Amino acid sequence: MQEQDKTNVAEDKLAQTCGTTVALWHKLIRFYNIASNGLSSGVEQQIIMESTTMRHMVETGELAQYLYDPNDAQWFLRLCDSPEMHEKTLETNQNIIDAACIVFAHGILEDCVHEYLATTAVASPERWECYVKRKKVELVNFKEAPFEQIRNDKIEKLLGTDVKRESLIDKLDRLHRIAPPSEERQQMEVSYDRERLVRFDRARQNIVHGNDWSSYLFDFAQEWDYWYGLNFYFACLVCVNTGLKLSTKRMGHYWSNRSAKK
After folding, report:
1. Tens digit of pLDDT for each residue in 169-224?
2. Separation of alpha carbons 140 and 169, rounded Å
3. Packing angle between helix 83-123 and helix 39-59, nearest 10 degrees?
4. CA 20 to 30 Å from 154, out of 21, 41, 81, 162?
5. How far apart are CA 79 and CA 77, in angstroms?
């Protein structure tokens, strides 16, 4: 691939990653706001439905047959109608919304970082040579392809296997090794906070593997602002270290296309 062709491919991938990620972040916060803002009325309707069902079971005696003391049936009815039950239901369902959005956000961020890594591999494959220089290569390959093609194939395979399976934090660490921040980048409005992202990664693990839908130690809407800003921070890392330019026109094209998808 000619140098100019390689740059065009890399810059298109850069714009696609940035634009698509922006669209996904906007979709997520839109879903979060709709779900959270409609929660109160939704819970109210659910409680009315449950109270109606419970009242029917009490009045017909259906519930009493399952209780040691049939008089306890009225207690269940009062519990369904209590303010405490309403507040608890609100809290539980908000936690579920938060948990779902944290898992979605983790997926967006992880895919975003992986695609920026892939962009650096296209733009500056020499930065990846240290990761593939000891990979086995059949001798016949040297007769059929130049070194650069063999190297690039190995990098592509690495990205699709080992790197793809890495944790979010490992991917972030790798991106910062391949495209380290310069002093100018330290002055960005959004600064990189590894420990903050470690906490986020642990929250996602607790949700997925521990079924932990309890309250979290951060505000989702506030964290969304940070995750959204990281997209441009990563794009800047790639540009500064590879010399690529981010085309706002191309980025807008991918943004609008991804926004239009269901």
Report:
1. 999 999 999 999 876 555 556 789 999 999 999 989 888 887 665 555 667 888 99
2. 38
3. 140
4. 21
5. 5
Quote the pLDDT of residue 166.
Answer: 96
Map 54-118 to HEC letters.
Answer: HHHHHHCCCCHHHCCCHHHHHHHHHHHHCHHHHHHHHHHHHHHHHHHHHHHHHHHHHHHHHHHHH
Question: What's the pLDDT score for residue 174?
Answer: 97
Tens-digit pLDDT profile for residues 101-160: 999 999 999 999 999 999 999 999 999 999 887 766 655 565 566 778 888 888 999 999
**Which of 232, 251, 119, 226 is closest to 259 using CA atoms?**
251
CA-closest candidate to residue 106, choices 27, 190, 169:
169
Q: How far is Cα 193 from Cα 226, in angstroms, rounded to an integer?
A: 10
Buried b (16+ CB within 10 A) or exposed e, 161-186: eebeebebbebbebbeebbebeeebe
Of 36, 65, 19, which is closest to residue 254 (Cα–Cα)?
A: 19
Tokens of 241: 């270290």
Q: What is d(CA 241, CA 178) in angstroms, rounded to the nearest whole number? A: 8
- The type of residue at 36 is S
CA-to-CA distance for 14 and 22, rounded, in angstroms?
Answer: 12
